[in-house]
Design goal:
Blueprint (H helix, E strand, L loop, with lengths): L7 H13 L1 H9 L10 E6 L4 E6 L2 E2 L1 H5 L4 H4 L3 E6 L8 E4 H17 L7 E5 L4 H13 L2 E4 L6 H11 L3 E5 L2 E3 L2 E3 L1 H9 L7 E5 L13 E3 H10 L10 E2 L3 E7 L7 E6 H15 L7 E4 L6 H13 L3 E5 L10 H9 L3 E4 L1 H10 L14 E5 L5 H11 L6 E4 L33 E4 L11 E7 L9 E2 L3 H8 L7 E9 L5 E6 L3 E4 L2 E4 H9 L4 E11 L3 E10 L6 H15 L8 E4 L13 H8 L16 H15 L2
Parallel strand pairs: 4-17, 6-7, 6-8, 8-11, 11-12, 16-17, 16-18, 18-19, 19-20, 29-30
Antiparallel strand pairs: 1-2, 3-13, 4-5, 9-10, 14-15, 15-23, 21-22, 22-24, 24-25, 26-27, 28-29
Helix pairs in contact: 1-2, 5-6, 5-9, 7-8, 10-11, 13-14, 18-19
The protein binds 5'-O-[(S)-butoxy(hydroxy)phosphoryl]adenosine (WT7).
The site of 5'-O-[(S)-butoxy(hydroxy)phosphoryl]adenosine has 22 residues, from helix 11, strand 20, strand 24 and strand 25.
């Protein structure tokens, strides 16, 4: 059997087999990878206990699958093409041979710094090849990486270091993003004031921002590499890992104040990301594949690093932002590197669309043959623009639905193989068994139905636990619908059986494709000395998909409202990061509450959406008269948008 599905008929056949005999199906897929020792048992599972094991007894190292096994046939093929933030700076190409060499070298650096199998390593780096090298070097020796996105604050880093008990931090002096320089090392220094587990910090030189190197703790990446170079053999044998050994932890927001450490393990994650990469993008041997995500998010882990590399692909990594030096940058990158596959987010598409088509003029996009979208629902207008202007109506668009917890894509077209339709993620991938549930917990059978999206059978890429708190994993994902994984997304299945994701059904916002937990954000806002209480809701935002609307009860509003607002935003930046800053802040006297004292978010959401005609029943409120005040107040804030 070949790994890649080649026709719609074949998809239907394979899908059927994957449901009738999931273990046989996944064993066949796993045979396409390199195992040091074959597994004994394909799958054992118990969703009630969130106990899921794939390929038990199998021994492997994911880096041998991503690197070593390609060396003979693809050694001189580019593994990573890196495009810098500044178009004047030279780009870099790392062939598979060179990447393996650098990974082994840095793996030796890790060992030299006392990192062993099972140790946790926190990575806070800009989008440079060394980020992928650091992750792969961890995986090489069996250390568990936890990558923190560069837009998170010192406090967020500290929380993640403390939660995982990380021994080592890998960072850089700074990072370039458009015209800005982010002082990564200084932020790490602040974080380390609030932690005690970290023994060493390895600092990469990138921006030459002045940094304070602490004796005995901080070392330079370049010095450490030089040290291992003089030690002789650059090789670093790949640690033999159990299929269910932890590969990484990645934090994501949920309904409570504290982000969850989503845990992915080695064998299943490798098989799932490799299989889905190959099939969804229908990757062909010489294609250049460009995923615009940041590696700090799951999309970058699965579809810049592990998925493409396990398939011997050329993965283009971009340090900058879509609008620097101007809104034509993506298209410059596509033209310069002759990109064939472009995988990006609806927010980026909408924002570039808003800049106008003049940024597309004179850009040669003829290399593009497949397009992808991820992170949030893509509206029809953006889908059509992407299709017509970027794909010239000849490149199939894959609208890929999945989540941090899923490891890889669950519902999506296969490019050029299965049908597409604007705003639809379409059909489940082989091995994925979706179920739509009604509010009484019954599965909705047949077509033309909508409900809460669950998955009723395990797939190899799914999360195994939430770090340090298994009960939380059970409660969050496996309790609402016993025996099923609950995605917390709403979904409809149309008359043809095609799936359309309608958005989160919990209190989590999706802002520019990034998950923001309202509880976490409210906790941060409430930390400000003048804030009495706050409530966060989402509202439709033309570019970001969802904007963040904050209703805040505070003291001293009349003194200087704008200053207070700026101080509250600074508090959010300090506690979570700039990505969580509300778009609209409305100061209110009071919030609508139920008789039991719960904030009525439904009403606040309607006001934020400016849908005042159907506020629903407000007579049951403890304080119905505040609704008028909030509506009245909202007028003033809406005008400012
Ligand atoms: C949430 C997961 C793993 C992708 C990056 C975001 C939303 C994701 C789609 C899509 C509609 C989508 C869902 C999901 N989402 N992809 N194609 N269409 N919605 O990962 O931060 O874990 O967020 O993003 O609401 O639950 P994440």
């Amino acid at each position: 059997m070949s790994l890649q599905i080649k026709s719609f008929e074949e998809y239907q056949e394979i899908y059927k087999k994957s449901v009738e005999d999931p273990e046989g199906f996944w064993a066949g897929v796993a045979d396409h990878f390199f195992w040091k020792k074959k597994w004994q048992n394909v799958l054992s599972w118990d969703f009630e206990k969130a106990d899921i094991k794939w390929f038990e007894g199998g021994k492997l190292n994911i880096t041998e699958n991503c690197l070593d096994r390609h060396i003979y046939s693809l050694g001189d093929k580019p593994a990573i093409i890196w495009e810098p933030n500044d178009p004047e700076e030279a780009h870099r190409v790392l062939t598979y041979k060179q990447l393996l060499n650098k990974v082994e070298q840095f793996a030796n650096v890790l060992k030299n710094n006392d990192i062993k199998k099972g140790d946790r390593v926190c990575i806070y780096l800009p989008m440079v090849p060394e980020l992928a090298i650091a992750m792969l070097a961890c995986a090489r020796i069996g250390a568990i990486h936890t990558v923190v996105f560069g837009g998170f604050s010192a406090r967020s880093i500290a929380d993640r270091i403390n939660d995982t008990d990380s021994k080592l931090v890998i960072t850089a002096d700074g990072g370039f993003r458009g015209t800005k320089t982010i002082e990564l090392k200084n932020i790490v220094d602040d974080a380390l004031e609030q932690t005690s587990s970290v023994e060493k910090v390895i600092v990469l030189t990138r921006t030459r921002t002045p940094v304070s190197m602490i004796k005995g703790r901080d070392v330079w990446w370049e010095d450490e590499v030089r040290k291992v170079e003089t030690m002789g053999s650059p090789a670093c044998p790949a640690e033999e890992m159990d299929a269910e050994d932890m590969l990484f932890v990645l934090y994501t927001s949920g309904s409570t104040g504290k982000p969850k450490g989503v845990v992915h393990t080695t064998g299943g994650y490798m098989v799932y990301t490799g299989y889905t990469f190959s099939n969804v993008f229908q990757y062909q041997p010489d294609e250049i594949y460009f995923c615009t995500a940041d590696i700090g998010w799951i999309t970058g882990h699965s579809y810049i690093v592990y998925g493409p590399l396990s398939q011997g692909a050329t993965s283009l990594m971009f340090e900058g932002i879509p609008t620097y030096p101007d809104a034509g940058r993506f298209w410059d990158v596509v033209e310069k590197h002759k990109v064939n596959i472009l995988y990006t987010a609806p927010t980026a598409i909408r924002s570039l669309m808003a800049f106008g088509d003049e940024y597309l003029e004179d850009k040669d996009l003829s290399s593009i043959n497949k397009l992808g979208s991820v992170g949030e629902p893509i509206n029809e207008e953006a889908w059509n623009w992407f299709n017509e202007k970027i794909g010239k109506s000849e490149a199939p668009i894959v609208d890929t639905w999945w989540q941090t917890e899923n490891g890889g894509i669950l519902i999506s077209p296969l490019a050029g193989i299965t049908p597409t339709k604007p705003s639809y993620a379409m059909l489940p991938l082989p091995g994925v068994q979706p179920a739509l549930m009604d509010e009484n917990g019954n599965e909705l059978e047949g077509n033309d139905v909508s409900g809460n999206l669950c998955i009723k059978f395990p797939w190899p890429g799914m999360l195994r636990t939430t770090y340090g708190d298994h009960q939380r994993c059970i409660d969050t994902y496996f309790s609402a619908y016993p025996g099923k994984y609950f995605s917390e997304d709403g979904c409809l299945r149309d008359k043809e059986g095609h799936y359309r994701i309608t958005g989160r059904v919990d209190d989590v916002l999706n802002v520019s494709g990034h998950r923001i937990g309202t509880a976490e954000l409210e906790d941060a806002i409430n930390m400000h000395a003048d804030v009495v209480e706050s409530a966060i809701v989402g509202y439709p935002h033309k570019i970001k998909g969802q904007g963040i609307y904050a209703y805040i009860i505070a003291d001293n509003v009349e003194r200087n409202e704008d200053e207070l607002k700026q101080n509250i935003l600074a508090t959010v930046t300090r506690l979570i990061g700039p990505i969580a800053k509300p778009d609209i802040v409305q100061f209110v006297e009071d919030l609508p509450k139920t008789r039991s004292g719960k904030i009525m978010r439904r009403i606040l959401r309607k006001i934020a959406e400016n849908e005042l005609d159907n506020l629903g029943d407000i007579t049951t409120l403890l304080n119905p008269d505040v609704v008028e005040n909030v509506i009245e107040g909202a007028k003033k804030y809406r005008e400012k948008v």
